[in-house]
Fold this protein.
Amino acid sequence: MHYDLIVIGMGLSGLMAAKTAAEVAERVLIIGKGMGSLCLFSNTIDVLGQLPDGIEMKEGLSRWIREHPNHPYSTVGVEKTEEAISSFISLFPPPYSLQTIDKRNSLLLTGAGTLRPTYLVPKTMIGGVCLTKENTLIVGFKGFKDFYARHVADQLKCRGISLQLSDASYEMSATALARLMERESFRENIGREIKKQLHGETYIGFPALLGMHDPVHVKEDLEKIIGAGVFEIPILPPSIPGKRIFNRFKEWLIQKGVTFLLGKSVSNAILKGRRCEGIEVLHPPVTNSYSADRYILATGRFIGGGLKADDERVVEPTFNLPLFQPESREGWFKNSFFSGIPHPIYQAGILTDSSLQPVDERGDQILENVWVAGTILAHHHAIDEKSKEGIEIATGYIAAKYAMEK
């Protein structure tokens, strides 16, 4: 079948590109071998963590762009980045909204008991911003090894407890607990037990697994039972809040008629001159072909398989696009691996023009109907900058805009 647009990659940048295209196109296909890193790492939405305290995000982005002219944010620009974030937020109306406080970063409690800056926070986590330690109780579950309530509480100098679950197995996963939280009887049992153990606390911090489908209802029901405010705390992968974001995108895109090809990866791109004529997807023993007028590559970096490394160099396997990268493997890392300074290898990625189309080292366009989005782009340290989701949202949005306009 022929499509208006094929998006390769099902992370946040690919989902954002598919959403943007679906608003103007009739036939959109999104292909992904998995559910992207949303379901692993994303609990909140980072736009740019390296900001002075109290500065508004718009001003911070403007400064950042002036100081980092090759960064993906510089390609997109402040206004388009804000436009992209607004488009993303529109997918999450109340009750489960993602919101910013005064258009600035907030310091959010983490599962390690530390505070980290982030921009968009789910409603279920807002209570973890500016909490009063003396009035907070941290709750964990025996058998759930990805969150240690007493460790978090020790860092905050407050109390922590671990509940024994009578209707759960000895070792519990985040997904299993999130499903249990959606049972009214389960909430009643743990709510009553917590209420018995209160020492005057007015806020209760849970690991971020208050249900998969309606976490606000779970939160409000627990608050009613316990008689105290409840908030979620981000934890180790898998990320239940990230799965909520993915599921919301998937639900919306399917309603718009977008075709999902999940669990498959592109095995070959069919190129003719400076155009991509189609892609092949291997599903042993069958190879299926798909064609489109336009393509967006949003396969991420090393974790997602968008970039691969051998003994000598880094390669982009889908279109074999040239990459910005250190000249030799010896230049991948600093003299000390644990120096605390971002390593050069993590700036590796695809070079593009101002329209996010791939170019070579001379700046000449390589493929006229292919655009690139997300962390596979060159010249950023998304993890160190705390900009990963912001880059994905902004570039996924604007790449689809450019593609559909052309």
Q: What stands out?
A: The two ends are 21 Å apart (CA to CA). Residues 388-405 form the longest helix (18 residues). The domain at 111-233 is CATH 3.40.50 (Rossmann fold).
